[in-house]
């Protein structure tokens, strides 16, 4: 029996391409693992009315962690139309399988490292090395939404000013979830010898929910007197990150702000072909590239697999395979620095598997 059992969730679109690339490097590095394929993605929504079938969740529960490619998802009108005729009008609305996975398995940390590897022609500035800790289970992503104002909401002070036809999305933030994500950021900062942690919020306007988040941040920061806590409003943070990205190392924030900030940081180190992510809970984790299914490139083996290969590096780290993780990162860095193999987004003409094979050859 292999040492690890990994749920292998390819998804659809270019998910197939990048997962094939990740497998090349994982096989080459000699990870002792069984990769168990699981169903997820658009075809399962169309044929079964569920993009993340229960059998896949059950499968995940019997594995050490999951590795996920990419999926296609669509807005409500299109999602409903593409359902198999016999499923039309039945079952739930389309729900993002990724958001569901995070909530069901309580994967409360969304960890997104954004590092400018020397020699990457897409780097915004050399030396950027930012790790974003995004709260992954609550905030504006709890999925409690109303197409118009429910009558009972008018019992709440201030609501009388809101017209009935307003759509409403609720934002929920608890002290417990805030504390655990901030603690994860501080633990990382201590281990990785980072000089400070930056908490991002909009507490001057969104007073209640971001008030809870910042109170939790200050409470946890008091346990780490050696690491200063700095804070910034989300809007100013966007500006500061572009103006002076080297000032930042560890950023911690709520769900939606983290979604935005981590894309900004990923773009500064090469964009979608480089953005990797770990969804991490107390005993389970799902690793993935942050990009989507890029339908126009699906099956062409053209997209950059580095994001997915860096997600594999994160998985190795999380499994405790530190040496393999460091070797894999070294191989990625070496191929980028050499600049001989580049996918289209980097200005080159090589394909997904050329990149994977070049990285594997450095291992
Ligand atoms: N985690 C996920 O699976 C995820 C994330 C985002 C979007 N989506 C879904 O993916 C589908 C397509 O969404 P989209 O077009 O907005 O975003 P996308 O990330 O799929 O692609 C946008 C564009 O970015 C470029 N790109 C993406 N990945 C790349 C890579 N690895 N290397 C080089 N270039 C890359 C391509 O030009 C692509 O057309 C939608 O159905 C969307 O809902 C899924």
Question: Could you explain the architecture of this structure?
Answer:
The chain is α/β, with parallel strands linked by helices. It has 3 domains: 1-109 and 276-363, Isopropylmalate Dehydrogenase (3-Layer(aba) Sandwich); 124-138 and 173-268, 3-Layer(aba) Sandwich (Rossmann fold); 142-170, no CATH class. It has helices at residues 15-29, 42-48, 54-61, 76-81, 97-104, 175-191, 207-221, 234-243, 255-268, 306-319, 322-338, 352-361, and strands at residues 4-11, 33-37, 65-70, 109-115, 129-135, 145-146, 168-169, 197-201, 229-233, 250-253, 276-280, 285-289. The strands form 2 sheets. A 10-stranded mixed β-sheet has the order 2-1-3-12-11-4-5-10-8-9, with helices on both faces. Strands 6-7 form a two-stranded antiparallel sheet. Helix 1 (15-29) links the parallel strand 1 (4-11) and strand 2. Bound molecules: nicotinamide-adenine-dinucleotide. Nicotinamide-adenine-dinucleotide binds at residues 70-74, 98, 272-273, 288, 291-296, 303-304, 307, 345.
Question: Shape from CA axes?
Answer: globular
Please give the order of strands in the largest beta sheet. 2-1-3-12-11-4-5-10-8-9
Mean pLDDT: 95
> What structural category characterises the helix and strand content?
alpha/beta
Helices, by number, come to 12
Tally the beta strands.
Answer: 12
Question: What is the level 1 CATH name of the largest domain?
Answer: Alpha Beta
Task: Please give the CATH architecture of the largest domain.
Answer: 3-Layer(aba) Sandwich
């Amino acid at each position: 029996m292999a040492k690890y059992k990994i749920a292998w969730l390819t998804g659809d679109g270019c998910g197939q391409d990048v997962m094939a690339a990740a497998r090349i490097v994982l096989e080459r590095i000699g990870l002792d693992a069984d990769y168990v394929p699981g169903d997820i993605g658009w075809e399962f929504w169309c044929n079964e009315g569920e993009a993340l079938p229960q059998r896949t969740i059950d499968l995940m529960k019997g594995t050490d962690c999951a590795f996920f490619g990419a999926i296609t998802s669509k807005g409500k009108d299109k999602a409903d139309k593409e359902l198999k005729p016999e499923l039309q009008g039945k079952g739930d609305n389309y729900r993002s399988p990724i958001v569901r996975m995070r909530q069901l398995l309580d994967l409360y940390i969304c960890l997104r490292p954004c590092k400018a590897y020397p020699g990457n022609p897409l780097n915004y500035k050399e030396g950027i090395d930012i790790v974003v800790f995004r709260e992954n289970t609550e905030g504006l992503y709890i999925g409690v939404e109303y197409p118009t104002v429910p009558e009972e909401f008018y019992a709440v002070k201030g609501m009388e000013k809101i017209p009935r036809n307003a759509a409403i999305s609720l934002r929920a933030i608890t002290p417990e979830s805030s504390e655990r994500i901030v603690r994860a950021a501080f633990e990382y900062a201590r281990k990785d010898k980072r000089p400070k942690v930056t908490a991002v919020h909009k507490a001057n306007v969104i007073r209640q929910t971001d008030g809870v988040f910042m109170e939790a941040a200050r409470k946890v920061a008091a346990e780490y007197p050696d690491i200063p806590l700095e804070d910034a409003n989300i809007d100013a943070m966007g500006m500061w990150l572009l103006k002076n990205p080297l000032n930042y190392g560890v950023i911690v924030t709520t769900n939606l702000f983290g979604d935005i900030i981590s894309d900004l940081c990923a773009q500064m180190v090469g964009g979608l072909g480089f953005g990797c992510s770990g969804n991490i809970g107390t005993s389970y984790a799902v690793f993935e590239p942050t990009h989507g299914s890029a339908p126009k490139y699906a099956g062409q083996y053209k997209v950059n697999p580095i994001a997915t290969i860096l997600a594999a590096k994160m998985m190795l780290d999380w499994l405790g395979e530190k040496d393999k993780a460091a070797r894999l990162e070294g191989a990625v860095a070496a191929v980028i620095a050499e600049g001989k193999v580049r996918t289209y987004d980097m200005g080159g003409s090589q394909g997904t598997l050329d990149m994977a094979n070049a990285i594997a050859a450095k291992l």
